[in-house]
Design goal:
The structure is a single chain. By secondary structure, this protein is mostly helical. Helices cover about 35% and strands about 0% of the residues. It is built from two helices and no strands. The protein has helices at about 15-25, 45-60. The radius of gyration is 12 Å and the shape is globular.
Length: about 60
């Protein structure tokens, strides 16, 4: 079954981050994730997207 988590600020809030990693903890090596940002021309500088990417990569997910 596929799971999706939509947030307004990525994994910036620790409670959301902890719940997300608990949800996928048992098979992290087989998981993939994507970070979908806004259409803003400054999206590469979005602190929420940057933090989410760092968190996901840090847990071993493929982006």
């Amino acid at each position: 079954m596929l799971k999706i988590l939509l947030t307004s600020n990525g994994l910036y809030i620790n409670e959301i981050k902890q719940q997300f990693f608990q949800l996928i903890a048992y098979e992290v090596v087989r998981k993939k994730a994507t970070v979908i940002t806004t259409a803003s021309p400054q999206k590469q500088n979005n602190k929420f997207a940057i933090k989410a990417r760092e968190n996901l990569l840090g847990k071993g997910l493929k982006l």
